[in-house]
Amino acid sequence: MIRISSRFQPVLSLAIVCLLWFGARADAQFSNFIRGDVDQDTAVLINDPIALLSVLFGPSAPLPCEQAADANDDDQVNIGDAVYLLAFLFAGGAAPPEPYPSCGSDWDGGLLQCLQPTPACLPPTYTYVLNSTSTAGGSADSVLEFVTDHTGVPTVTPYIDSDPQYDGLKHLGVSFGDVFVVQENATLGQHRVLQLSVPGTVQDQLSTYPGEAQAMVVSDYGYLILVTTSSSPASTWVVRYDYFSSWDETVLLQLDEEYDVRGATIDTEESVFFTGSGSAGAGVFRVTSSGDFELIYPDSGAGSIHYSVNWGALWYVSTPSGSEGQLVQIDPQGFLFDQVPLGFGVDPVIGDVGVQDSGLLIPFREDNVIVEFDTSVYTFETVLGASVGVDHPIDATGPFSFAIP
Predict the structure, then answer these.
(1) How many Å apart are CA 334 and CA 208, to the nearest integer?
(2) pTM metric for this prediction
(3) Which domains does the chain have, with CATH numbers?
(4) pLDDT digits (tens, 9 = 90+) for 104-121
């Protein structure tokens, strides 16, 4: 069972009320379209009534968006809509009601569906990539923001460059439109977490934390988790910071041993999971909000990890030496759900896995590509590459990932 943080229970209650009120008609009312644009080319022309008539009286495929074909907004699709469009185009008739001529939604669309919103009306996809100077990862040059619209061609904006006083950037997170990134100078023992609201502008920062950051998690319910280690004295820390409350900190775990930490995430019950190895074994570890610590799933190759609210499960990358690697899905108690081969050759060099809508973003540092794995249909697709500025990516994520850090 999935539980929601107590901090967001009032919000959840309101969301449930809204879902009950809107749910049965969500597809119809919240899809973006242009009324009268039957063929979805973003313009209302003679081809639109022709396309509608072909569907009504011919063997044409079903309408991709019934609401767009409802030109006169009477909550029906029939020959009257074709007549309405012809009158508008050639006889000085009234223009289609809103949404026209711009994209929009119909809050009173009756039972008409819009199963395929107009592509040009869909919101752009935002992806943030942490670029490294080498395939080995570690330090990075910059954070890049990629905004991709329906054309599939991204607009690239540098979000922040590395500071000469620091070794570089590492560990990336996005929440409520803010970008979080770690800067460290291991030689001088200087480190900080930067919070940026717009490109190049630091809104806030966390200046001190123990050890060297090995993993960072940013959740949309106000927490930033750092898993840090130190060799002198040997220690491993899991610390939770509240970035809504002046970075108030809670130490969830302190071990007198330096663990090899490879990734971390947090679930809706506010348990932290990290991958790595130490005296307790190797694999996926769980740290509860009360400080309980245990190995829940042994795996010597366990790497970057994420929790998915959609599935109530953990996804992590496993790359044992000499293996092609795979994505592994387990539940928060360590029960194995699934394993999916990556198919990118033996010993792939993979960065920190992020989230994008219903998928996982997987950075392949040697191949200079970001691959999206759709967790619903189990498909892989290259979404960003060297041609648009991806250079040895060590982290990638999308925004607005409630409880999917």
Answers:
(1) 33
(2) 0.81
(3) 24-118 (1.10.1330.10), 125-397 (2.120.10.30)
(4) 988 776 788 888 889 999
